[in-house]
Specification:
The chain starts with a helix and ends with a helix. The longest helix has 16 residues, at 73-88. It is α/β, with parallel strands linked by helices. The protein is globular and about 70 Å long. The strands form six sheets. The chain has a seven-stranded mixed barrel, surrounded by four helices. A six-stranded mixed β-sheet has the order 7-6-3-4-5-20, covered by helices on one side. 29% of the residues lie in helices and 19% in strands. Strand 4 (58-62), helix 3 and strand 5 form a beta-alpha-beta unit. Helix 6 (171-182) packs parallel to helix 7 and helix 9 (302-312) runs parallel beside helix 12. The chain has 22 helices and 27 strands. Keywords: Iron, Iron-sulfur, Lyase, Metal-binding.
Length: 649
């Protein structure tokens, strides 16, 4: 039988289930990735589960999100993460070493391996011939403990790549074109696999750009073959021995087919406030901008910065424009400095920030009120930038640089000068001194966890009740992101290890009365929310499930869920249900009361249940997609209780 690359990776790591699309499978996880916005909770979960040592081939804890030190909360948690990495046998990437995804690609990614990360953009490392997936933190904690990762077997969406990119067009325009075609939910329950003769014209970092924003398509992952370009990249990183060839068999087939001719791609822009709101640049050409931002995990490569540097070299940023430079790794920053690119930026008037996620997650660099921000970041969900009513456009580095010079969104093909010639470096700066290797076990087990005053234990989780009357506390529409459920940014993320405090920000972008209303009825049985399609798109932050759970949310009823958030809800004992008849959402109002009876038995007996709307003479038909294992977890009140029960048993 002929297999594509995705099927090979899954077959090699399959521990439970069958490779039948839609059925639950359990996969062996070789590597994990955690970052400081999500990893703090993961380390607390490892402690709660009594884990003595990571069972993976390599697990790494990165500090790249919460870098602003306006008080003691972030540095205190960094010390906790460092001690936890030592205690549990993880790599530790110190603050300033860079964004997790490109650093992992440089130092630890290996073709043929699986990678699970508590960050939705973990899929970026699919550029290396890996099956790389984002997940909630507790799923990653389980993988670190040596447990399988459970996921619905995805379909494989083959994308044949031909041609070569024209001048002024880059890999960011390729993935924006995919989003223009398919939108933010088009890839749900699929892995995108790129193949074909055009791949030879995409570098490993170009592939990283495309794989990274597979998350924005809603995909389970994105996979590229491991070929000569992968080998070249690993050789430059001093890791050629980690390379293996991995390609689709002759005659391999795909569940869905697509094709991209690189020579036909043109500059694209995603308008506010969705990565799927993509238009050709002609439609927004001339829009004034306040900020132009270059960097993030969606454009982390040397060329991404170097091309922008050559565009602004000898020129000056337009009056009233902030050109923000966001280096993505220390290695990248050193190489750019040595080649004179940082000087080009600074002389043009750019502002240089530390290597980290920074403004991408709303951790600094927030734009002014009522002004447009043009960014090479992967997301522009409402409020994600740190400014509540923001207006963020997404684009390529070429578009960002040209637009910064002109003070308005500008088609880079109208630059008025030749496309700069930027060559990839044939020698890189390799310095691992800010990536601490795991301690030997005998030394690690003596390490004490360093807990600052902001670290709070996870509250006990109640079992799923059998009978409930739940008022609908919020009714929402389509495409509600995890940033809207629980914002990121400098105000919120410092409380990532303190659930009672971080819960105060829940749904504030949607309805700033939610917290107070939820607290009023939390001890009276809790509440439900209802929403439309693609609920929970975006970040993998499990706080977006944990905080509503803490506030008494028992059930979420929506048209359909984004994959990671659906799994996070199930992991923490919030019952995720969908409408059998989507039109029923229109008949529900905030304040309606949903009556559940005999629920524990009903979800075991059938994937469909009937729920009464109190006082309205209306019955809803709802369904769940939980496996038998997840039903057991749900009834026990979540994965933490389930694990504790297993360990005690």
């Amino acid at each position: 039988m002929s297999y594509n690359v995705t099927q090979k990776l899954i077959k090699e790591h399959l521990l439970e289930g069958e490779m039948k699309p839609g059925s639950e499978i359990g996969l062996k996880i070789d590597q994990t990735l955690t970052q400081d916005a999500t990893g703090t909770m993961v380390m607390l979960e490892l402690e709660a589960m009594g884990i003595d040592r990571a069972k993976t081939e390599a697990s790494a804890q990165y500090v790249d999100h919460n870098l602003i030190q306006e008080d003691s909360k972030n540095p205190d948690d960094h010390l906790f993460l460092e001690s936890a990495a030592k205690r549990f046998g993880l790599y530790f990437s110190r603050p300033g070493n860079g964004v997790s995804h490109p650093v992992h690609m440089q130092r630890l990614a290996k073709p043929g391996k699986t990678l699970l990360g508590s960050d939705s953009h973990t899929c970026a490392n699919g550029c290396m011939g890996m099956l790389a997936m984002g997940a909630g933190g507790i799923d990653v904690a389980m993988a670190i403990a040596g447990e399988p990762f459970y996921v619905k077997m995805p379909k494989v969406w083959g994308v044949k790549v031909t041609g070569e990119l024209p001048d002024w067009v880059s890999a960011k325009d390729v993935i924006l074109e995919m989003l223009r075609r398919h939108g933010v939910k088009g890839g749900v329950n699929h892995v995108f696999e790129y193949y074909g003769p055009g791949l030879k014209n995409l570098t490993a970092m170009d592939r990283h750009v495309i794989a990274n924003m597979g998350a924005e398509l809603g995909a389970t992952g994105t996979v590229f073959p491991s070929d000569d370009e992968t080998k070249r990249f690993l050789k430059l990183q001093g890791r050629e021995e980690d390379w293996i060839e991995l390609k689709a068999d002759d005659g391999a087939t795909y569940d869905v087919h697509d094709e991209i001719d690189l020579s036909e791609i043109t500059p694209m822009v995603a308008k506010p406030s969705s990565p799927g709101n993509v238009v050709p640049i002609e439609e927004v050409d001339g829009e004034p901008i306040y900020q132009s931002y270059i960097g993030s995990s969606a454009n982390p490569g040397y060329r991404d910065f170097a091309i922008a540097s050559k565009i602004v070299e000898g020129k000056r940023v337009a009056d009233g424009v902030s050109l923000d430079l966001n280096p993505t790794s220390r290695q990248m920053l050193i190489d750019l400095s040595q080649q004179g690119h940082i000087a080009n930026f600074l002389q043009a008037g750019a502002r240089l920030h530390q290597a980290g996620c920074n403004g991408c997650i709303g951790m600094g660099q927030a734009p002014a009120t009522g002004r447009n921000s043009l960014r090479t970041t992967p997301r522009n969900f409402p409020g994600r930038s740190g400014t509540k009513e923001d207006s963020v456009f997404l684009c390529s580095p070429e578009t960002a640089a040209i637009s910064a010079l002109n003070g308005k969104i500008t088609d880079p093909r109208k630059a008025g000068f030749d496309y700069p010639d930027v060559q990839e470096l044939d020698q890189l700066t390799i310095d691992t001194r800010l990536l601490d290797a795991p301690l030997p076990f005998e030394e690690a087990k003596e390490v004490e966890l360093v807990k600052g005053p902001n670290v709070a234990s996870i509250p006990e989780m109640d079992e799923l009740p059998n009978d409930m009357e739940l008022p609908i506390l919020l009714k929402m529409g389509d495409d509600i992101s995890t940033d809207e459920i629980l914002a990121g940014g400098a105000r919120v993320l410092p409380y990532r290890s303190n659930l009672p405090e971080i819960s105060k920000f829940t749904f504030e972008i949607v309805d700033d009365t939610y917290y107070d209303r939820a607290m009023e009825i939390r001890d009276q049985g809790g509440h439900a929310i209802v929403a439309g399609a693609n609920y929970g798109q975006g970040s993998s932050r499990e706080h977006a499930a944990l905080a509503p759970k803490y506030l008494g949310m028992k059930v979420a009823v929506v048209t359909d869920f984004a994959r990671i958030h659906w799994q996070n809800l199930a992991n923490f004992g919030v019952l995720p249900l969908t409408f059998v008849n989507e039109s029923d959402l229109n008949d529900l109002e905030q304040g309606d009361v949903l009556v559940f009876s005999g629920l524990r038995d009903k979800i075991k007996q059938s994937n469909q249940i009937e729920v009464e709307v109190k006082g309205k003479d209306k019955t809803l038909k709802l369904e769940h997609a939980l496996s038998e294992r997840q039903i057991e977890i749900m009834q026990m009140g979540g994965l933490i209780n389930w694990v504790k029960n297993r360990l005690e048993g």
